């Protein structure tokens, strides 16, 4: 019975052991599978964060500074991560900026980054992490981390798993039949211990079997193994912290003496481990004026076991650099005493350089190095508030600077601005703040000129005259000689002025008046404000008029020597809601300073063609050509020829009935292109007339190359040709030149019979002026 009973117990024990082995194996594998999946995801996420952290500084160079060379540095660092399959950097707007592949093969890059992390893709986990440097968001990083699946591990070790399982079954039967009574208890205790090991807290994991046989040896071996695992994990954590980061790292012992440094530390400071081993880090050396800092750090480590802050350190070559340093105390698990200290720092040299450059650009012009508008305003406010003397703000810009850029290129324009800056600094830097506030606009801020206003005015005038002298000297750049001219606006102000904005506005108003009246220098006076406001009012109303086409064309007839109508000129008038009919002399200058002249000119072109279409159906007017004025800005527009073609074709008129009157300033922008455009228009059949001939930049060279049909003598010469021999000579010469070059000549401003007779005698046979008719509406024109 005892044997049977014993045999029954051993069978039950064997069955229980077999069942336990089976259940434990399945549960362990299931838990292992769940744990391994989460572990792989967590590990890959941590690896993704490490990759983002490692390349963050280079990404900042690539994204913020557009440093293309940083891309090669990023690729070199990414090659050191064997688990990384591919990586894509997306900018903050979602567009891809940089991509990397371990296999150097092309792969599909999404147009926008997917925000979902931890997705399985071809035996890899794909994560999206934020690229951040110095708490600044740079974009998103999408990267693929190679992982091993549970299935792969199982397939690779299937024979091993089966062998272990079978061995465990055999052992269970052997133990049950031969050592059930003696070894069941320690084995069960050992099994239980192994099942409950916590690898994250190994210092509290030890087994006690209270056996004096082989189990005692097993007990010692297991506990020794756990101690070694704990030490290995501790060293691994230290190594991971110290050597898997681009930050400089130092590991010290409990006495704060260096025992290890990483490569980043050597790269940043130049010191190797041999240079610093056994010594305290420089930040902890209490020497001279640094003793206060040393005391602060030591006190923080003693009370808080941590310190962090920005300090200034020195490299091996003796140069200084700024760093952000953190010191972390590492304590023993058993006694809680410090065993190591981890020093981690980030080199702030690049950040400091960027901050310095940003601060500079906020106050200075990057091209010339002169003060910008912000610094000028600050200086004016400080000066006007701290002195009761008169101050002067002198502004000037370069006449026709755009023409220089168009003719020679923007690089030449920049060189001229730099040369102007050099002259200004040499002449005025000791007494005045020199500022560049526009493309070609400069201002000189003179503080504390004189107490008496009359003396201050005289001093400011002398400064302006010297400016003109200084800028009138030729500029020789790349063997090209360039002459410029300037116009100057001067504003004297006292401490009672209402601020820098008003002072600068008044100076600019004086400058605009100088340009308008063609004067070299103009002082600000209060009437300028009213004139500027009037300009603004006209511009506002004119903008409304353009939108609602509040214009009408008047027509001034042109007569031949038989005093018969041979053509007409279309002249625009503005039908103002309150002012009535407004002359173009009032609003065309305002329109020409803005792009409104383009819309107005286009309207005139189409309205004139509509009128020609009407005349073409009338026997009285079908033979008449019609002239329209074209501004320089309108003529320079790229689609001007296409506009003319569309206006003519859409109204079904002949090209030769349309005449375009151009001013000589159209040649200042791009002479060759302007002449080519004139030739294209003449090939269509359109006649070209040079308006106000003789008042601009006329020369025999122009007459030789310009494709003209007609030149118009300006009325200012016609008016005084009877009394002024010079005007008479000019009129006579222009008529002779027209005859020599085969141009038709028409004189405007003809106001008397004497004017007609003298012009006829000189050889001019076309006339336009008040003697014949003022500009009239189309209804009155039909009655002439």
Top keywords for this entry?
784 residues, single chain, alpha+beta, disordered N terminus, Alpha-Beta Plaits, 50% helix, Beta-Lactamase, 8-stranded mixed β-barrel, 5-stranded antiparallel beta sheet, 26 strands, 28 helices
CATH superfamily of the largest domain: EAL domain
Number of strands: 26
Strand percent estimate: 15-25%
* Topology-level CATH name of the largest domain: TIM Barrel
List the total number of helices.
Answer: 28
Largest sheet: 8 strands, mixed, barrel
CATH class (first level) name of the largest domain: Alpha Beta
Low-confidence stretches: 1-9
Computed structural class = alpha+beta
- The rounded Rg comes to 45 Å
Shape category: elongated
- Average pLDDT, rounded to a whole number, is 82
Helical content stands at 40-55%
Main sheet: strand order: 18-19-21-22-23-24-25-26
| CATH architecture tag of the largest domain | Alpha-Beta Barrel
Termini distance?
Answer: 150 Å
- Quickly count the domains: 4
Structure description:
The protein is of the alpha+beta class. It folds into four domains: 2-153, PAS domain (Beta-Lactamase, 2-Layer Sandwich); 245-353, 2-Layer Sandwich (Beta-Lactamase), CATH 3.30.450; 366-525, 2-Layer Sandwich (Alpha-Beta Plaits); 545-781, EAL domain (TIM Barrel, Alpha-Beta Barrel). It is built from 28 helices and 26 strands. The strands form five sheets. Strands 18-19-21-22-23-24-25-26 form an eight-stranded mixed β-barrel, surrounded by four helices. A hairpin with a 2-residue loop joins strand 4 (124-133) and strand 5 (136-146). Helix 2 (56-64) packs antiparallel against helix 3 (70-78). The protein is elongated and about 145 Å long. The termini are far apart. 28% of the residues are buried. The model is unreliable at 1-9 (pLDDT under 50).
